[in-house]
Amino acid sequence: MEETSPRLTLQPDADAPRAHLLGRWTAARLADPAAWAAIQDTLSSVTPSTSPAWRWDLQGLERLDHTGAQVLWNAWGRQWPGNIALSAPHRAILERVARYTVQPPPPQARSLLTRFLLLGDVVLRVTDHLVDLTRLLGQLLLDARRLVKAPRDGPWRDVSGHLFNIGARALPITALVGFLIGVVLAYLMSQQLRQFGADAFIVNILGIALIRELGPMLAAILIAGRSGSSITAQIGVMRVTEELDAMRVMGISHGFRLVLPRAMAMALAMPLISVWTTLAALLGGMVAADLSIGVTPAFFIETLPKVVQVANLTLAVGKSVVFGVLIALIGCHYGLRVKPNTESLGQGTTASVVTSITVVILVDALFAVVFKNVGI
Question: Which of 92, 190, 312, 328 is least surrounded by CB atoms within 10 angstroms?
Answer without folding.
Answer: 92
